[in-house]
Amino acid sequence: MALVESGGKITHLFLQAAQAPAGLEEKQTPLLRRAAAQLEAYFAGKRQHFDLPLAPEGTGFEQQVWKLLRAIPYGQTCTYGDLARRLNNPRAARAVGGACHRNPLPIFIPCHRVVGAAGKLTGYAGGLPIKKTLLDLEQAYK
Fold first, then answer.
1. Residues 39, 64 share a domain
2. Residue 100: active-site member
């Protein structure tokens, strides 16, 4: 994984270091160490919420979707259609999926908790095996 900080806030989490842009400077800061420690605790089943300053960049619509994602409880899922309805735009399920795909802070903003209709695992920028692993992890420690 690779974490990016700017202006004292976490801006990106790359699930695979290879996804990080070329030339990204490796450094350690207190905030990056804190974020890494919180991720380790999450993967060990000892943390269900993150307490970090986050600054994802996106459109107004994406920001609305990401705010809804943060409200999905640990160990639970909802559908893209559910989120579209919460945005008072029931036809926007595909747009919600696009916003989830462009989420620069997966895990911190838990887009892995969004599933297709009838609970089907669909789409995840990190790949479906990672999505399934995250959902299984949360079920095991719920």
1. no
2. no
pTM of the prediction? 0.92
For residue 27, being part of any structural domain is answered with yes
pLDDT tens-digit readout, 19-63: 777 777 778 899 999 999 999 999 999 999 999 999 999 999 999
Active-site residue among 111, 114, 134, 135?
Answer: 111
User: How many residues appear in the chain?
Assistant: 142
**Cα angle for residues 75, 82, 135 (degrees, 5° grid):** 20
Residue 54 · residue 63 · CB < 8 Å: no
Residue 29, domain member (yes or no): yes
